[in-house]
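Encode chain A's predicted structure.
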Amino acid sequence: MSTLSAWMHSWFHFPKASTARHFFYGIILGFSLSITSTSLALYFQDRRRKQLEKRFEPRPIEIRCDEIIHGVAGLIGNTPLVRINSLSDALGVEILGKAEYLNPGGSVKDRVALRMIEDAERQGLLYPHTGSRIFEGTVGSTGISIATIAKAKGYDTTIIMPDDVAEEKVQALLALGAEVERVRPASIVDKKQNLARDRAAHFGHPSNPNTRPSMIRTSTSSILVSSSAPEEILDERHGILSVEEQDELRRMPRGFFADQFENRSNFEAHFFGTGPEIWRQTSGRVDAFISGAGTGGTISGTGRYLKTMNDDVLVVLADPEGSGLYNKIKHGVMFDRREAEGTKRRHQVDTVVEGIGINRLTHNMELGLDVIDDAFRITDEEAVAMSRYLVQHDGFFLGSSSACNLVACVKLVKKMGWKNGERVTTILCDSGSRHYSKFWNDAYLTKANITVRTHLIDDLLSSENPIVMDSGKSGFATPISQE
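Encoded structure for chain A:
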């Protein structure tokens, strides 16, 4: 027993004064180093923020009595960046929406339409007031934008669009004087996919579609320009045109296929416009940018610009049901399981959300594919719920793609665990006024088996764990991992 007592005494005794002092000094030193390292991290973070702020030129709002905008084109762009108060307050971050629905044509597509037309004019492919006609295939918004700008610049417009889009878009196009040709939505392997291109090619010879069109050479194969000029004038073997022949050629009507999906002007409209505006409006403080993709121009152009300014900015895709882009970003494959035969409500992308979602990779999407960091699948029920939530809490009356983007904003914040004022920017593409007959029509949604459940957003905002919805089901699914 005495041996055990001696052993315990050797282990359980107070340290010597010098040892206790050294131990105490170690604690103080460790605590000091921790504070110092934290201070240094905060210092360098603040220093980086100030360096980023120096990279943009502040543009305060000014009201000048001599500032007059010339025509409808002058109203395009420089849209406000608005805080979505309800979502921002609930999440502890800043959800900021670029109010693109305030463009004169009512959507973000005004930027693209203006850039495509003005680029064509700079390249000598289009001349105003010559009887020339612009052709485009669209679900509506791009067509409305093209028709708006075309009228202002002196062009006619023919729009090829699916026969199942919201009727109010058709009425807007007709009111703007556009010719509208409605067709069944075409799959990517359908030979009618380039119907607008075909119409433009035979513009000069509408009475005889078998006539070989007179084509004007362009810088890219995607853009097509036909002319009513004799073919021999455009033949390379004709040689250099005389001044009279050049003048005559300019005055002859042309058919122009804009091709918003492949036309690089789409990407550049956002790289040189939307992106710099967001950077300036946030004073260079952007943590993430979220957008849906149809042509891919918005997310590619804006995302790439923001990444050139700060590589830490997250660029995230919001993808609706039936689109293959989500799987392209997450898994490298363009496929969606709802494309299975016999499971679709629509002939192409299976969603009530219009304007975003696609099942092929466009040139404009390829231009920014490498800058997209993440993607979220957004269900129709989530998009519908968000649109109703925003009206009830903020007074925002937005379209389907805008609601889709904002659901993705909430999901990203939840996934990242952000709650310290991080800034998430997105696009408010268009207003709800173009979606009365479908997205904002509860009777239509009921027929499409889409339940209006506004509590989905409350549940998403209040959830502790980040969650996603299964694109084929209602209700919440499994938590997503931190990737």
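Residues 73-102+264-473 form a domain with the Rossmann fold fold (CATH 3.40.50.1100).
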